[in-house]
Amino acid sequence: MPSVCVDTNIWFYSLARPKSEEQAKHRAAQRLVGSLHTPVVTPQILNELAYNLLRKRAWSEADIRALSGDLLLRCRYLSPGPAWHEEASVLRERFKLSFWDSLLLASAQSAGCDIVYSEDMQHGLRADTLVVINPFAQS
Fold this sequence. Notes:
Elements: E1 4-6, H1 8-15, H2 23-35, E2 40-41, H3 43-57, H4 61-74, E3 76-77, H5 84-95, H6 99-110, E4 115-117, E5 126-127, E6 130-133
Parallel strand pairs: 1-4, 2-3, 4-6
Antiparallel strand pairs: 5-6
């Protein structure tokens, strides 16, 4: 079974009450997240997710705490290491990624992930043995 990291946007679509135009992404994200065994999460993912659920969907702090507890039980939590920023810089330069996307890829590589599920990065992007998959991309 491949080791995977799920980007904030996929978690958001799976958890947030969808707007009408987000129904298909909501269902696809729920199916994907529900099928995964122990995906990797990082402080960046948890922080971005909490921020967006608070701001865009008016979740309560109690809801955020409960979600964080659930994700920490269900996922493999990986704290940043000292080499992440340098590796992220190399990835930014190599692939012209955003600052935050490069940190996510660096953390996924550090965790030994095979796949990063993300809507934000180029579908099919390969960084060494890591591949980015957009679960919403048309086949």
